[in-house]
Write a structure and sequence with these properties.
The complex is a heterodimer of chains A (406) and B (450). Chain A has 406 residues and is an alpha/beta fold. Chain A has eleven helices and 17 strands. In chain B, 24% of the residues lie in helices and 21% in strands. In chain B, strands 1, 2, 3, 4, 5, 14, 15 and 16 form an eight-stranded mixed sheet that branches. The chains are: A alpha/beta (406), B alpha/beta (450). The interface between A and B is large, with 43 and 56 residues.
């Protein structure tokens, strides 16, 4: 598996050189095997978690006594348009779609680490996110993973790591979409010399795939990256499972509102799903079976689940925590809800060194005042790559100005 | 949701020209009257719960005593008759029925289709003659889900494409074949107005307004016409001016969609110019910037806990907005948490919880007894129905929610929802809430959707 990794942690020359931090008396959710919280200290050096032990004594720049507060891995948003969207209804602030490129659309050159959405989401405990293009049509494009450090030089975690698409939205019918899906991959599989592909693709005239697009499909075919398809209807999910099995590709399903109806089938292929567990409405005829226990039913069947936020998703990625809380009140174990926002995301997208609290991993950590799924929870401390991050945002600045005026 | 509101420009109403009485405001007397009549509730008392009354109290081991569809009393050690039917709610929490002051249930239903998108008469910026109740689809699947979230009353507004969007209607959240059967008895009508980006986006390339100053000129022009109409002895009946003059007569309450601080201050002055009152600003993302002005003018603000960024006028959101409005001028502010969302309406308690937590973190001291008013008493006040609902005080409608735990927890679920003392949702009765017609046999012919 080839992933373009540029770990922030390995190039620390630009900020907080070698700061060593010791977190004392933490109650740690490791996000790995074993659900119990671990009472321990955490030693952080050069951006990495170097030791998780009781009673660590080390010469460090800073000691923070957590007095038993909960520490979790920084939360990872599995779906967002972070850094490529500032105001939803202001097109000139959006870089998340294309009418020219489809599967090949990469957003990595337009990601803006200074977007105001980043500090706002960080305040809610999100430390990294997949940023995904949102073009309508069969293929939306390629997602890249970013840290929410806000650093101009070191925000990218991993570039072009998954191909996103949808078979149920847009103007053409799902009948045509599924054929396009099959034909696209068929074309991509037959093309060896990309320079000749136009003559041999066999694609309909008005369904254009550029070289760049075909290359993305080929990366899916070689299992280098997963294909993430938005689908809610149970029969659509079954179709996709069959399709991915026939090509032997890595599939992830996003949405899966009716996933509970075919949970066993999804589990059998170990296909991960990205859920918005707070969505229980039959908003369209594709999701008539939407319900609040979808997450727990999928989990119980053995499906790896990821939890995403719902309304105004990219501005409020941290509301995945509220959705997770709702899923827990409808039967999902609390630990699994947390994994669905940390380790499961890292595993599903092959993100290395994040999503767990583990020695050798990036020190992306959130210290919580209380259960992070609770509505009154907030981070007491946020660390990204071992650096303590300010809880300030444009919003807190506005608050402080007007608290004085009022 | 709000996007579809602006896109739905193909909807035209055909209002029947019935009625012959031409005096202003007379329409309220005859047509479309509420036919809602609850069954007899009998007498019972719910005991052992933590009770948030909505009137400012929190009672441990509290009791709520109901008779004849009304609250007899709530508190502790009540002197209800021996042998009264008792509902044990030990360890549970009780609140008044939750009220959503900003809903589009029925007019932007779920499923959301172009064919049932009926909330914006987006053909003209001035449409005070359209009434939301003439669009409501009573079988909207959002309604029973909202009931499960504790919503007993909701206020349906037209969308915000227009300067004057039309009349809103307050409904009881009960299953009914007719809108009249849901109408909250004697609730005043409301008028939806909208500031800012939406009208200028919808009309900016056609008839206008295309600017905020154009918006304000549009309101003033219409109010001048309404003043003339109101002063006429026997005017030719005009549905637009009938609604507007109803506002000038104080019979119809203005619910004003408005985001920016300076714009809300302008709208308060427009109201002063024509001698009407803005009852509540809706969305009010920048209400915190003018919280003192709102409090001085007795104007409520209905807000989200944390929505932002979908438009430029929603860029300056702060999590403490609700709390700052609430605490303005030593706690004289009128803060409301609203949904405007099919997801949010199911958990307004959670939205209030986030807003309370943000306020307390910022240094305010806001109790649960206070914060529950943001979704009970205060919306009742702004809908003109506080005399009959919104708290658990003596004589009010017995709209009561029993929660399995503290409703400010993300894990809280409702267990029982009473409307006028009638149990419409009971966690122990799987046939409640009653599914909509749409949901019968929808997925499997033998089953309901849920």
């Amino acid at each position: 598996m080839k992933i373009f990794v540029c770990f922030i942690l390995f190039s620390f020359s630009l900020f907080s050189v070698g700061e060593n931090i010791l977190l004392k008396n933490a109650s740690i959710f490791l996000a790995s095997q074993g659900d119990a919280l671990v009472s321990s200290d955490i030693l952080i050096s050069n951006g990495l978690i170097v030791k998780i032990e009781k009673e660590i004594s080390a010469k460090v720049d800073k000691v923070i006594d957590l007095d038993g507060l909960l520490v979790t891995p920084g939360l990872i948003a599995p779906y967002s348009h972070l850094g490529i969207l500032e105001l939803e209804m202001v097109p000139e602030t959006r870089d998340d779609s294309s009418s020219v490129y489809t599967a090949g659309l990469s957003i990595s050159s337009s990601f803006n680490p200074l977007s105001t959405l980043i500090p706002n989401n960080r305040r809610g405990g999100i430390t990294s996110a997949l940023s995904v293009p949102s073009s309508s049509g069969l293929f939306a494009g390629l997602a890249s993973a970013y840290s929410l450090s806000g650093s101009l030089h070191q925000s990218l975690i991993s570039e072009d790591i998954a191909l996103f698409g949808a078979i149920s939205s847009g103007t053409d019918s799902r009948s045509a979409k599924t054929l396009m899906l099959e034909d696209s991959f068929d074309a991509a599989s037959r093309i060896i010399n990309l320079d000749d592909w136009e003559s041999v693709s066999g694609l309909p005239k008005d369904f254009f795939l550029s070289k760049r697009d075909i290359k993305s499909l080929q990366r899916v075919l070689s299992k280098e990256i997963p294909l993430v398809i938005k689908a809610d209807r149970a029969s659509d999910i079954l179709y996709l499972l069959k399709f991915s099995e026939s090509l032997g590709i890595r599939l992830i399903i996003r949405g899966a509102a009716e996933g509970w109806m075919v949970a066993g089938d999804i589990a059998k292929l170990k296909v991960p799903v990205i859920l918005e567990p707070i969505n229980n409405l039959p908003s369209s005829f594709d999701e008539l079976g939407a319900r609040l226990d979808n997450a727990s039913k999928l989990y119980e069947s053995g499906v790896p689940i990821m939890i995403a936020s719902h309304e105004h998703a990219t501005h409020n990625l941290h509301l995945s925590r509220q959705g997770a809380g709702v899923a827990v009140s409808y039967g999902l174990p609390w630990q699994e809800a947390l994994k669905a926002m940390t380790s499961n995301v890292a595993d599903s997208f092959g993100l290395e060194k994040i999503g767990y609290i583990k020695e050798g991993y990036s020190a992306d950590l959130v210290v919580w005042n209380k259960d992070p799924l609770e509505l009154s929870a907030y981070p007491e401390h946020i660390l990204i790559s071992g650096k303590l991050i300010s809880g300030q945002s444009r919003s807190t600045r506005l608050r402080d100005r007007y608290l004085k005026i009022n | 949701m709000f996007v579809s509101k602006f896109l739905s420009i193909f909807i035209i109403f055909f209002l029947s020209a019935c009625g012959s009485d031409h005096s202003p405001g007379s329409d309220q007397a005859r047509s479309f009257q509420s036919t809602y009549q609850p069954e007899e509730s009998g007498e019972f008392v719910i005991v052992g719960a933590t009770v948030l009354t909505g009137a400012g109290q929190e009672y441990e081991l509290g009791e709520v005593w109901v008779s004849n569809n009304k609250i007899v009393q709530s508190g502790v050690n009540l002197s209800y008759p021996k042998g009264i039917k008792k509902i044990d709610a030990k360890g549970k929490w009780i609140t008044p029925g939750i009220i959503d002051i900003h809903s589009h249930m029925g007019v932007y239903p779920s499923p959301s289709l172009r064919s049932n998108s009926d909330g914006n008469e987006a053909i003209d910026p001035v449409t005070p003659h359209v009434w939301a109740e003439h669009s409501v689809w009573t079988q909207d699947t959002q309604m029973p889900l909202a009931l499960k979230g504790g919503i007993t009353t909701f206020h349906v507004l037209p969308g915000s494409a227009n300067l004057f969007g039309g009349r809103g209607v307050t409904l009881k959240n009960i299953w009914s074949r007719t809108v009249q059967g849901m109408k909250f008895p004697n609730a005043p009508y409301t008028l939806k107005m909208a500031c800012g980006e939406n009208p200028k986006r919808v009309y900016g390339r056609s008839s206008g307004p295309s600017t905020r100053m154009g918006n304000v000129a549009g309101y003033r022009k219409a109010w001048i016409q309404a003043q003339e109409y109101k002063d006429k002895e026997n005017p030719v009946r005009d549905l637009k001016l009938e609604t507007l003059s109803g506002v000038l007569e104080g019979k119809i309450l203005v619910q004003n969609h408005c985001y920016r601080g300076e714009e809300m201050a302008i709208m308060i002055d427009v109201a002063k110019e024509f001698n009407y009152k803005v009852t509540a600003f809706h969305h009010a993302v920048e209400a915190y910037k003018i919280a003192d002005i709102l409090a001085e003018n007795d104007v409520c603000a209905a807000m989200w806990a944390d929505w932002w960024g979908f438009k430029h006028e929603a860029y300056d959101m702060i999590w403490e907005n609700v709390a700052i409005v609430d605490q303005a001028n030593n706690g004289k502010g009128c803060a409301i948490v609203h949904s405007d969302s099919s997801i949010g309406v199911q958990r307004l308690n959670q939205e209030a919880a986030k807003a309370m937590a943000a306020g307390n973190k910022a240094g305010f001291t806001i109790s649960k007894a206070r914060a529950i008013q943001w979704i009970t008493k205060n919306p009742a006040k702004a809908l003109g129905i506080l005399e009959t609902v919104g708290t658990l005080e003596t004589g009010k409608m017995a709209d009561i929610v029993v929660w399995d735990q503290d409703p400010f927890s993300v894990y809280a679920k409702t267990e029982k929802v009473f409307i006028d003392g009638i149990l419409h949702y009971d966690i122990e009765n799987p046939s409640t809430p009653k599914p909509t017609d749409f949901e019968l046999g929808l997925i499997k012919p033998e089953e309901d959707r849920m």
